[in-house]
Hints:
Number of helices: 13
Largest sheet: 2 strands, parallel
Distance between the termini: 30 Å
Strand content: under 5%
Amino acid sequence: MQVYRDLAIITARPSAAETALAPHRLYGTVDAAETFSVGRWVEAAGTEVAAALSAGALPILIGGTGLYFKALTTGLSAIPQVSPLVRERVRQEAAGRSPADLHASLAARDPATAARLRPSDPQRILRAIEVLEATGQPLVRWQEAGREAAVLAGHDLATVFLAVEREVLRERIDRRFEAMMASGAMDEVTALAARRLDPALPAMRAHGVPGLVAHLAGDLSLAEAIARGQRDTRAYAKRQETWFRNQMPEALWLTPSAAARALENWLGAARVAPFPAESTD
């Protein structure tokens, strides 16, 4: 979500002070009217990684969407490109329909793929419908057919999950949302809502945006909108933890302070192993 220009505050994009410490790439480079897919991100991130390595710099990939990082390390499913005409037709036909209704339509035609998707995830549901329309084959079949070469194949990688005690994390999420509101998140979402973009677009579903848009429409009080944003973010953090445990078991789980010490030790010793074994607290 931090790639979208319109969402600097509500996604807690790095501040000017933070970006002054080291070059930051791909932040705020995409318009909210676009769908920035994992395929596009892998291509863009791969280009930046190659540029950093050529300059003798250390590329550090930071984020919470494990699927994007895994795509860099294991490759993407070789799914054919969907033409803009098909994508536009599917989006037009889906306009005004609820995610649950779209999921039911997909389930009737492609039950295998629908079974893997949450009925509340319109973006992935629409993606599955687009692939089905464009290729005549279920998305799950393309996903199981094989993978393209991974961008980071052959590189030494240190994969770390920053583990924060759950209650502490919940408190930080709530306080951060309040801080974002104090920093102008409401104005940011007001400007985004004024563009009247498709609610199914990724930028329109960033945590906090749906609730604040509903507040602008008079459907939620401001307190209710803030509570919804906090709740959605907490739920996502919980799903992140489950996803990384199941999908990337090779990741080291370290507290932020332990990770910082381990990285300093690793870089200072120019070790080949990802992190010193003693830094595990």
